[in-house]
Amino acid sequence: MVTEEIIQEEDYIEFQIIDEKSTLEQNKYKIKREPYYYRHLIHKKIISKIFQQLSSKKIRTVIHNLIKKLGFNPEKSYKIIDVSCGYDDLLIELAKRFINSKVIGNDLCWKQLLSLPRKKKLSNLTLTTRNILSPEFCQKENYDLIICKNTLHHLPKSGQLCLLKKLVRAGKKVIIVEIENPLEYSFSSFIWNFYYRKFLKDDGLNFVYQDEFNTLLKKVNDKIPFVKIINASLKTIKGNYLFAVIKNYKKYTPNNTLGREGREW
Ligand SMILES: C[S@@+](CC[C@H](N)C(=O)[O-])C[C@H]1O[C@@H](n2cnc3c(N)ncnc32)[C@H](O)[C@@H]1O
């Protein structure tokens, strides 16, 4: 585990990754563990490793392939953000793959960020704890690539569309990944969700069905006509994962919040 150095930057807190060994040594008396810290540790170190080939690794492979297909070149420099990265390996993989890029991992929960599996300091990686539902999020910023993975079900239904519109406004390319309602998809998805809720205390319950997901995307498309959306899905033991790749063909100025007809989105 690593801990954080808190830096006040503008109006949000930023963590800088610092050396694992020295950090633990310096902060071992200061760290207050999550109540379910050990459960998450068991999940990350054992359960997830056993089953990753059947689910999370499959999803990450698809994301990496999509990024390649979208034309991203690891040698070049981009601004990439995962808006709710949790402690998923994807962020670290991106930071390592796009070593010349600025890679930002955001998550409301800083303890999740501190659990990101990294062996050494990655100088191109920045961690932030911004609330993606706050009006300021993605208002004055632009990204080459935005990733939003398994997050919509943690947001109120009203926040889901609002977030998608903000992401499309701020990102040239946006990849959305969301599990289709696991409570009703299959027996195995139900069991996995039960495990997440009861063992890991995951509280996201605003799941979407495939048609709801498509409706959300259509609404984004209706409001932002210069956007192209590609849909796909991937079946895993944890359930059916819905993918959307959104390409924004209009170049935005950071403060541009107006749609085609000049209305606020
Ligand atoms: C199911 S986890 C997904 C984590 C990671 N993207 C993955 O696929 O493994 C959802 C994450 O969204 C974060 N989250 C929920 N609401 C948020 C908000 N309003 N702002 C930022 N992050 C949020 C949670 O802290 C959690 O880490």
- SSE succession: EEHHHEHEHEEHEHHHEE
Total helices: the number is 9
Major sheet size, sense and barrel closure = 9 strands, mixed
Low-confidence stretches: 1-29, 253-265
Outline the structure in words.
The protein is α/β, with parallel strands linked by helices. It has one domain (38-248): Rossmann fold (3-Layer(aba) Sandwich), CATH 3.40.50. It contains nine helices and nine strands. It has helices at residues 20-27, 37-51, 56-69, 89-97, 110-114, 157-170, 182-185, 187-198, 210-223; strands at 5-9, 12-16, 79-82, 102-106, 125-128, 143-149, 171-179, 227-236, 239-248. Helix 6 (157-170) crosses helix 9. The structure holds S-adenosylmethionine.
Protein traits:
265 residues; alpha/beta; Rossmann fold; 36% helix; globular; disordered N terminus; disordered C terminus; binds S-adenosylmethionine
Short overview:
By secondary structure, the chain is an alpha/beta fold. It has helices spanning 20-27, 37-51, 56-69, 89-97, 110-114, 157-170, 182-185, 187-198, 210-223; strands at residues 5-9, 12-16, 79-82, 102-106, 125-128, 143-149, 171-179, 227-236, 239-248.
